[in-house]
Amino acid sequence: MTQTCTASTLPEQFVEPLPPFSGDSTECGKCSHTGALTRYQQACPRGRMVFNGATCMRGPLPERLERTCQRCGFEWDESLDTAPAIRPATVEDLVYALQLCAPYPVHPQAAEHTAFRLMEVFDVQVRLGHPVWNSAHTRPVPAPGPPAQPDPAPAAPPAAPAGDTPPASPATPATPPAAPPAAPAGGAPVPLQDKRPSGPTASTTGH
After folding, report:
1. Collapsed DSSP state (helix, strand, coil) of residue 188
2. What is the separation of C-alpha 73 from the centre of its chain, rounded to a whole number of angstroms?
3. Distance between CA atoms of 50 and 11, rounded to whole angstroms?
C-alpha cells in the first residue's frame, strides 16, 4: 500500500486505540479467510492517504502493524505485538495444561480425549510468557490409577429349593460280629464256656 502523510493543523491526538495483534492465523473480517500479511507502519499525523483502494483522511495514527488479507487484500491496523509471544497449541500442550490446572487428578486418557475435543471446536494459543511454560515438560503429569478393590468374599452355595429334601448320606455299614475263636490244631473240640451264674444257689424242694 502506498500512503502519503501530510501535516495537519488538527490537534496531535490519536484516535481510538487499535485492536491487539491477532496473530498469523487471524481471520479476515470481509471474506473470513484465515491468514494475513503483516507490515510495520510508523506513526504519522492526520493526512490524506490511500487505504483499501480509496484516498481518505486518516490519523493521526500511532506506530502500528498493517494487516492485509492474503485472499481479498482487505487492510486493517492492529497495535504492536508487545505482549508475550504466542503459538498454536498442540494436543500435548492441552493434555499437560488440563492435568496441571484441574482442581483434581485427571487420568491421562481422559485428558487426551478432552484435548482432542477442544482442538476440534477451539483455536487454542499458548502464551509462552506464562510461568507454566517456562519449565520444559516432556511427559504428562501422572494421574493416580484406580483404587485397589478388595478381594470378593467367597460366594455362598445356592440354597436348595423349598420342599426339596437334601439327599441322605450313604449309611455306614454295620460292624460284623466277632468270629468265634478258631479250633486248636489237631481237631480237638473247643470247651464251651460256662455261662451259669456263679455263687451258691438255693434249691427248690416241693413240699
Report:
1. coil
2. 44
3. 21
Peptide bond into 189 cis (omega under 30): no
Eight-state DSSP code of residue 37: E
- Cβ neighbours of 49 (radius 10 Å): 19
Q: Are 181 and 191 in contact (CB under 8 A)?
A: no
Tell me: the pLDDT tens digits for 46-75?
Answer: 999 999 999 999 989 999 999 999 999 999
**Alpha-carbon span 49 to 23, nearest angstrom:** 26
Query: How confident is the model over 142-197, as pLDDT tens digits?
Result: 544 555 566 666 777 776 666 655 565 565 656 666 666 565 555 555 555 555 66
Strands 47-51 and 54-58: antiparallel
Chain centroid offset of residue 177 CA:
79
- State residue 126 phi and psi, 5-degree precision: -95, 125
Q: Give the residue from 89, 175, 101, 87 showing the smallest Cα distance to 132.
A: 101
User: What contacts 100, CB < 8 A, 6 or more positions away?
Assistant: 132, 141
- Which triple of cell numbers denotes residue 115? 484435548
3-class DSSP assignment, residue 36: strand
